[in-house]
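Consider this one:
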Amino acid sequence: MPKKKKPAKPGAKRTRRSSPGLPSKQDILKFIQDSPSFAGKREIARAFQIKGSDRVGLKLLLREMADEGLIKGRRKRLTKAGELPSVTVIEITGRDEDGELIGGPAKWDEDEGAPPSVILLSRRDDRGQAPGVGDRILARLTKLEDDDGAAYEARLIKKLPRDAIRLLGIFRTVPDGGGVIDPIDRKQLREWSVSRHDANGAKDGDLVRYEIEKSSHLGRAKARVVELFGNPESEGAISMIALHTLGLPDEFPEAVLLEAENLTSPSPDTFQDLRDVPFVTIDPPDAKDHDDAVWAAPDEDKNNSGGWIVRVAIADVSCFVHPGSQMDKEARKRGNSIYFPDRVVPMLPERISNILCSLREGEDKACLCVRMVFNAMGVKTGHEFTRGLMRSRARLSYTQAQGAIEGQTDKVTAPILDTILKPLWQVYGTLAVARDTRAPLDLDLPERKIKLDHKGQVDTITIPPRLDAHRLIEEFMIQANVAAAESLEATKSTLIYRVHDAPSKEKLEALREFLVTLSIDLPKSGRLKPEQFNLILAKARKTEMVELVSEVVLRSQARAEYSAANFGHFGLNLRRYAHFTSPIRRYADLVVHRALVRALDLGAGGLTDREITSIDETAQSISECERRAVAAERQTVDRLIAGYLADRIGAKFTARVSGVVRTGLFVRLAETGADGFVPASSIGGDFYRHDERRHSLIGDRTGITFKLGDIVEVRLIEAVPSAGALRFEMLSEGAYMASKHKDAKHSSPRKRKGRNRASRRRQR
């Protein structure tokens, strides 16, 4: 019987052995566990010097160990069962109590039990990309010995791109009966050929879903049409592209619609009667779902002289949508409503969002109401939640309410001006003082409003004014959200916070370097607060660079998300914050409603034990849904504007440089706010290098410079509506950097020419 061999240490030099034999299962497990990188059949054979016919025996032994559950993986990459390889793909699922990102393996066999937890140490990869909740990363793992916390710590290697759920493109026919597909993804603007047999009945101009396949190992990749969506230029089709690209649901299952149809309003006997409180709703003029109503009056308590009582009533969705129901499952999957210029994709069926729950004028509606008391300085001194029955006195638009305050009343606002509207504005003035003292981040960036014609095409693009009516409702909602978080914390209840982390050190350093070029200082020491960013924005408002500085400050901020762990809201400068005020269109708010119902014993429909145990998973899921919704809305706007400008090829536009990368400049048109790209290879007769610190492109030979924020003139040379892509050429000459030009004179023309040609090839 052959003597059992000792394995060579991973990476050590191996010597020949005359008697091969096979190692024990324990020896193989120890070798896999000790291996600094992945170990497979080949590495095991080398470590134990197994050769010839013994390799067959090793193969059988490894298969037997896999069948017994001792190891897992493919023959080229094996790991001990229940453990992770040293380099693997991790999916970030949330944050721990200290705010650190945590996650688990992207792929895991449920038969092995619960997946091990992983804590992420590094926040940024070599390309400067920072992951967030819902992202997938490639990471190097180190096993931890502490059983009470995470099983592994991970060091970020790189952030992985999000997999496209569906490949969509526009099908174009060719004479031989086949066709080509133009992808709608602007990052993959290349044609895919389609044979006649793989066209699947697609017609010229159809929006199609397709798959990529190769005819052989070295063959040219081709596409195959797998689903047809019709003419992408038809009404409503532009938003459909975004929905299908990102895999977002746009139709409710029959079971959900049936459940909604069978619902009836709850008995009014179970609610506190608030119908004598003259609430009003103030929303956009085209709003169909009204989930918040407001009322205010002076506090009659002598101990609160100059103080105010404010009531915010929110639609009580929790009394209709119950945990575990078909509607609840669908709402959780959707996460939120999505608002496109041509349609709304609601989180809940129309019978719920627009009829049963919507706080429509003159109708009795169930609500969760928070009564808040403010002192003369606008500081909240107390609050109380009740479950009530309310009736809205008036449905107002923002401009209608603002006009009434400014003396332009109508038949709706005139009767309620003194008794309802003026008290609202008076208490807002008090709250605004407290808000300014709190000093939240004052980023008031303009937002485009697209109006479509009857064909679903862009009619006008405007930037609506920001009114006090907007700010009033926003401030009331913030106060109600804070009250919800405070009540749940006071009762030690589970809740989903709306969190916004402070900017990372890397982003702050990049911002600091940029502001230096504008002679604006950003403090280097201590923890920065929103107030310090506001001082920078105030300086910028005195110059022509206000939009630029606002944009760069915005980019330096972390992304807001939902979390069961609280690490505050940096932008609002609040210690605790939860979304409570929009349960018709946000699942997070519905969860907070249920938590309040349970914690404050307000009746049926409270948060269940099962929901509490999965609160982290829910927070992660709805954060990801929110990111997809934002992407869908942005992509739709980009495609609509690209279609709007498609017949203006060759036209000149004034634009501002909104981004600088190695391959060129991003520009934003002053006329429409449309974003496009100017390739560096198209700028003059020079090679332009990217100066990351100055956010600039600088010509090697001439020293001519284009930097972030420059006002330039560009010409539109290509518009691809299906991808939302615009390409421009630069008409402006750029600034002249004398020192750079002086240095360039001494460089070798021959070397410079070769370097430029090679670099331009890379840019293309």
About this structure: Residues 1-6, 8-20, 738-764 have pLDDT under 50 and may be disordered. The chain has six domains: 1-81, 87-159, 168-232, 254-499+563-633, 505-555, 649-763.
